[in-house]
Amino acid sequence: MSARLMQQTAAVAALCLLALPAMAHPGHGDGAGFLAGLAHPFTGIDHLLAMLGVGIWGGQQRRGLAQPATFLGMMLFGALAGMAGLTVPGLETGIAATVVLVGLAIALALAVPNWLAVGLVGIFALAHGNAHGQELPAAAAALGFMLASAILLFAGRFIGQVLAERVLRLAGVALAAAGVVLMGMN
Fold it and tell me: Which end of the chain is less congested by CB atoms within 10 angstroms, N or C?
């Protein structure tokens, strides 16, 4: 890795660290309603990075819509489980690990068979959905976070399709670094 690329990577990682004071799960303004659900994926740094990352990785691979559709479906399933009181052990660490893994997948331009990519994305989504369901256990909130998640996934997908590969790989490194920091916070 060249010195310039290492400096750029460090700068991007430092910028990611500046976002950490927002914390992973800030308070939600309207309790557990639609607006709280809509805001959560944009204000929870772990969810924001993971959903953008999953979208970027899918866009980088130039595949169909199976990854975002699977993410949304499995996230809803995880949310319903969370609303029912089912919890995943080590959930917060697992969510941070999804940020690391998707960052590495982007940084390495990891090309795996579509069934494997969809399976990984589905597992990531279960964890994120479970957290959403526990934190915002209302149908209106679920509608909000599903809409916000779809927006982030498709924004990431667009980014993954239009940015240069070198920039995407650098973004992947930054995502992975941010995920490591988030894991350290848990």
Answer: N
Residue 168: alpha-carbon gap to chain centroid: 15
Q: How far apart are CA 170 and CA 172, in angstroms?
A: 5
Distance separating alpha carbons of residues 21 and 171, to the nearest angstrom = 20
pLDDT tens for the chain, 186 residues: list them.
565 655 555 444 444 444 443 334 444 444 678 999 999 999 999 999 999 999 999 999 888 899 999 999 999 999 999 999 998 889 999 999 999 999 999 999 999 999 999 999 999 999 999 999 998 888 999 999 999 999 999 999 999 999 999 999 999 999 999 999 999 998
Query: What span, in angstroms and rounded, lies between the C-alpha atoms of 84 and 31?
Result: 18
Please identify which residue in the block is written with the tokens 């990431």. Answer: 156
Q: What global pTM score does this model have? A: 0.81
C-alpha to C-alpha distances, 1 to 8, 13, 40, 170, nearest whole angstrom:
11, 16, 36, 11
How many other C-beta atoms lie within 10 A of the C-beta of residue 72? 20
d(CA 46, CA 2): 29
How many residues are given for the chain? 186
